[in-house]
């Protein structure tokens, strides 16, 4: 998997007649050339998610939290499909926490808190998820709203020669 754009603005794309256009250089995330073959491109339009910071919490996490949650997304009018279903999870890296697909595709930065030890997610409603994160001393809770306003898109397969 290679992430071409993460939390990108529209000006990072070329605007096409009915699409946003981007380029891929045929390399992986480490800058190495990938072998010739068929590849598949897909992504998510994240839109304006709302982050509520509830601050420090005494408990981490609630017993009914999960590694991932299923969320119905907004239908893609270009694909003539019904509401897509995506499994969302929370992830951490040295720079903080983020919302991602269960497959590991990063979607949205939650916090820029370094040195986190663990993170958990729980579905609050059809439109929001709650995130708990902790370092060695403090737990913190966030609510991410409007997750149902994200849209999945599939760019199809293409051949790298």
Could you characterize the architecture of this molecule?
The protein is mainly β and 161 residues long. The chain has strands at residues 14-15, 20-21, 37-45, 50-57, 69-72, 85-93, 96-101, 106-111, 118-125, 128-134, 139-145, 151-160.
Could you give the topology of this structure?
Layout: E1 14-15, E2 20-21, E3 37-45, E4 50-57, E5 69-72, E6 85-93, E7 96-101, E8 106-111, E9 118-125, E10 128-134, E11 139-145, E12 151-160
Antiparallel strand pairs: 1-2, 3-12, 4-11, 5-6, 6-7, 7-8, 9-10, 10-11
| Dominant shape | globular
Mean pLDDT: 85
The structural class is mainly beta
Low-confidence stretches: none
Helix/strand order? EEEEEEEEEEEE
Summarize the structure.
The protein has 161 residues and is mainly β.
Which keywords apply here?
161 residues; mainly beta; four-stranded antiparallel beta sheet; 12 strands; globular
